[in-house]
Amino acid sequence: MTTLTTLLHIIDRDLNLQGKALAFTEETPLRGALPQLDSMAIVTLVASLEEAFAFEFPEEKLDGAVFDSVGSLVNVVRELSGAE
């Protein structure tokens, strides 16, 4: 699975989107567009991403802009995990 595909599966599961996230693209907005993406969901999502991609989010990377869109999140995951 690609980084994007894995990320979409995690978003779908953690936000309980029932398959809707699997159709998201890198341009799909997240923050402000998904009511499910609240502060508790972000904590869950961060933990899931850290586990799935074997990295730790540094505090300086945990700002709101990371969650602006699927693309912004996948770029940070790729950067921190060394994934393509």
Order of secondary-structure elements: HHH
Q: Report the CATH architecture.
A: Orthogonal Bundle
CATH fold type: Non-ribosomal Peptide Synthetase Peptidyl Carrier Protein, Chain A
CATH C-level class: Mainly Alpha
- How many β strands by DSSP? 0
Q: Give the overall shape.
A: globular
Average pLDDT taken over every residue:
94
Calculate the terminal CA-CA distance, rounded to whole Å. 11 Å
Helical fraction equals 40-55%
List the helices and strands and how they pair.
Blueprint: H1 3-14, H2 39-53, H3 70-81
Helix pairs in contact: 1-2, 1-3
Any key phrases for this structure?
84 residues; mainly alpha; Non-ribosomal Peptide Synthetase Peptidyl Carrier Protein, Chain A; 3 helices; globular
